[in-house]
């Protein structure tokens, strides 16, 4: 390999200014993401606020319904991945290798592991809203469409998809919202101590 063949290298073997700028920008972005991780409620409030601003923008502009529909389908897809287990129980019926969800009362507790973790769900949903917001600044994405049809189609799609997901949950007996292992109380302490 000669000098400058690797990604981001300039002619003299040092990283170029542009490469260093975008690397540093990526590091700062990742740092902010890392700092926001423990603040779940704040992150979701900001995302809902962005969503509200986006909806107001679409309402005031009276357009970009296709972009909004695509955003809704994307969020529905993310939500289904968030509700689904990492390992699909329907694929695990015949094989006994790997982790599986408990199916009986006396089986060992196994926490629900999602296909899409909450942080990645939030991050993808927020990025989707921001991309949709940017799309509203370009007339090329303002395709004329009769929006009530899109709303009805989205509602139908949402109901059918959620019905299928709920049937899957019932069939394989899993609940996507667990808060840890159950704690059982032992016998009550009567408060008497033995004196010797």
From TrEMBL:
GO terms for cellular component: endoplasmic reticulum; Golgi membrane. The chain crosses the membrane at residues 41-60, 66-83, 145-162. GO terms for biological process: protein retention in ER lumen; retrograde vesicle-mediated transport, Golgi to endoplasmic reticulum. It is found in: Membrane. It is a multi-pass membrane protein. Involved in the retrieval of endoplasmic reticulum membrane proteins from the early Golgi compartment. It comes from Orycteropus afer afer. Its main location: membrane. Belongs to the RER1 family. This is Protein RER1. It holds the Pfam family Rer1. Keywords: Membrane, Transmembrane, Transmembrane helix.
